Each structure stands twice: as structure tokens, then as C-alpha cells.
Amino acid sequence: MTFSQQLAFLRKLWVPVVVLILFLLCSFVQTFGINSWLPEIYSRHGFRMIRSFQFTMVIFIATPFAHLVAIWLQNRVNRKWALFILTTGGTIFFILCGFAFEFRWPVAVLIGFQIVQTLFAQGIPSILATLSSETFPTPVRTLGTGFVSGMGQLNFSVPIR
User: Fold this and answer.
1) pLDDT (tens digit, 9 = 90+) per residue, 25-62?
2) Residue 59 in contact with residue 114, Cβ under 8 Å?
3) Inter-axis angle of helices 14-44 and 107-121, nearest 10
4) Do the Cβ atoms of 100 and 117 come closer than 8 Å?
5) What's 15-152's CATH class?
6) Residues 6+ apart with CB under 8 A from 69
7) Which residue, 131, 126, 5, is CA-closest to 70?
8) I need a labelling partner for 149 at 20 to 30 A (CA). Which of 29, 44, 62, 158 fits?
9) What's the CA dihedral at 148, 19, 159, 66 to 10 degrees?
10) What is the mean pLDDT of the chain?
11) Within 13 Å of residue 66, how many CA atoms lie on the same side as its CB?
């Protein structure tokens, strides 16, 4: 199959392509946005920078386990439902983490909310990779998944001014 035939075939699937790109883009903005600013957020709330990095390191320890949770969940329920559960849980704990900062709840609660949010949110790309490869038929699978992945991460390759 030629490249132009693959593109024509991919055009028929434009709705799932756009949805997957938007979902991946939002997931990366949320995940990398909060994680890259987390030490600064802690230091603005009165913690020393060393302590802020310690908190962030403790939170990042949950990341490999998040992928294991995502693998386990997508083998138990439909992938779309697993994605829904992870995004909903991540959103709830993201909001609770914000409330914990705003209302100055204890640090253990704040870190706990962020760890649980990481367990939910960091597993989303694992499920999206599987779901996007299942969405496209075999002749255009690599082109479709590569396009979705590239466009979904485009926001990090464009410098912000």
C-alpha cells in the first residue's frame, strides 16, 4: 500500500484521530504541567526548595506503579472504561490536591492526594497507546499511531514565549 493510499484510508478515520490527539494532548498538559511545576508550587507555599524536591521525588515514585495499575485495569474492563476511570479519578484527586494547597491541609494529605492523582494520571498514556493501536486497521496502524502520538505531543516541542 502506498503512502497516498494510507493517507486516504486514514482520512476515513478522522474522528477517532482527532479525539485521540485531543485526549493525548490534554493528558500530557495535565501530567507534565503539574509535575514540572510541582517543586515551584511547594516552594511558593512556604516549603524550602530541598523539601519541595523531596516531596516531588516521593510523588514520582508512584509513576511506575501507575502503569502497572493501568495495565491491570485495562485487562479487567473495556479500555474506554479504563480510560474513563483513570481520567475521572485523576481529575478528582487533582482538584482535591488544589484544595489541599488552597486551604493549607496537612502535608501528608497533600502528598497523598498527589500520589493517588499520579497513580491515575500517569497510566493514561499506557491505555492510549493500546487504544490507538487497536483503533487503526493493520495497513495504517503505524502511520495512525505515529501521527496521533506526534500531534498529541506537539505542544511540548513548540517553545512558549
Assistant:
1) 887 777 777 777 788 888 888 889 888 888 888 988 98
2) yes
3) 160
4) no
5) mainly alpha
6) 119, 120, 123
7) 126
8) 62
9) -80
10) 85
11) 26
